[in-house]
């Protein structure tokens, strides 16, 4: 599924940015963001492997976690932990993932 690929890309971007994050933030908010994205990957894979009539709850949870990750990432930008450029790259990846999850929900509920 392309949403899994998109989440992979988001995590790779976070991982490659980790070294530029101050140590105090790397083991706090940044670690939380990375864990949320890993949870998103788990939810997407679980949903993909689950019977159609049971997928919705996993995708709704995925959508929620994407929004939490998006908000925490925005906080790192507001706190000047990440640059404007990095924030825009990450935000674009979150937006794309969110759109895919929404599309998946619409497909299952039509």
Indicate the overall shape.
elongated
Share of β-strand residues:
under 5%
Number of strands: 0
User: What value does the Rg take, in angstroms?
Assistant: 14 Å
Tally of separate helices: 5
Helix content: over 70%
Structural class: mainly alpha
The whole-number mean of residue pLDDT values reads 97
Biggest sheet architecture: none
User: Would you list the SSEs in sequence order as H and E?
Assistant: HHHHH
Walkthrough of the structure:
This protein is an all-alpha fold. The chain contains 5 helices and no strands. α1 packs antiparallel against α3 (29-49).
Topology, pairings included?
Blueprint: H1 2-17, H2 23-26, H3 29-49, H4 55-78, H5 84-109
Task: Tag the structure with descriptive keywords.
single chain; 0% strand; 83% helix; elongated; 5 helices; 110 residues; mainly alpha
Short description:
This protein is mostly helical.
